[in-house]
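Predict structure. Chain length: 427.
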Amino acid sequence: MKSTHRLFAVLAAFIMISFSGIMPSVASKPQKNSSLRAGVARINITPLSPIPMSGYGGRNDEFQKVRDSLYVTAIVFSDEINQAVIITADLIGFSDKFSSETIHKIMKETGLREENILLSATHNHGGPVNNTYGINTYPGVADYVVELQGKIIEVVLKAKKNMQEVQLGTAKGKCNMNINRRARLADGSIGLGRNPDGPCDHDVSVLRIDDMDKNPLALFVNWPCHGTVSGNKNYQITGDWPGATSRYVENAMGGQVVVPVTAGASADINPIYGPNNNFRDIDAIGMLVGEEVVRVAKSITTFPGGSVSALKKTIKAKGKKRFESRFPDQKLETADPVEIQLSVLKVGNIVFAGVSGELMTEIGLRIKAQSPFSNTIIITHCNGNSGYLCTNSTYQEGGYEAMASRTMPGTEFLISDNINEMIRSLP
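Prediction complete.
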């Protein structure tokens, strides 16, 4: 009898572990408790009239030409009860005001709940200003922002019209073309350079969405890296490496697949090439990331079924005034608290964790390591702009991220603890 009880206990433990999402897998298999549907759409958001570019201070002139177009992409998921959407755009980011207004307009147009909407940007430094960092009064900017909001709502509606039953699978690869940028300089400060000894998340996460005949509809890509191959002397509109990655993968897959790219936790991570005005470097990074995406995508087996659930939470971090030094141990002066939007969306056993700011790579690595789901993807610049979100040690070390951050030490654990609590609370 004791041996029988022992056997049942072992079996029960195995079942609990299997269904918790803790067991690692090359390709994720969503739960089969319902039919899973998805719709994908993409719309061009390249400005038609020249306006200033975003991403670098002091670059105030309007763009001169379009090197490659910018897009907004939406993926809508539905389990017959709940619907959710992930939106990503080839832009620097979205302000808190723009995000809130756009999300509420999407809610009104679609019936989606607020917590089920993730609006993100690739943090592309080769795109136009869109009032992410304050109101720009240059002629044409206000019109572009209005047009942009309309296209974001339009792409969600278009994706909803494209809904069909799908199968999902996910896997991870590696691309080492990103590097920690917090480099020690001879004067004792921390500059924006290349630090091969610093932490860096090289994961290339790929979500494959197939129709029921196993034909790929979309490949969702996440790689932690700033969109800064293009530099401050570039005056041509470009999607930087995220745009180049999308083009490469779409071409490699026969042009029939949509490839949205999102930025992972990369506040302190830059591409190895750039920033410069060399478009060959943009295409090279895009190709190298894209090759890994294609390799990983071809290894993924997709499965039908799965449920959709989401949570959203607003936390307040202690505010900090900006200081103008990159040297260590600067005096930290208090400012108004900073709101940070946290979102978690689970589709099957794939978790998307959204953060409204530039999250340092160490924090993203901790969130993924502590998550009970091996398929956890960090999406930054999501649902607002809370600025640089740094580790505690960054403030003592100095550097641009600490200088520009609007929050005090303690923010890193405030974020990671709350996100992991949210993930564990998902049904």
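Summary: Residues 1-32 have pLDDT under 50 and may be disordered.
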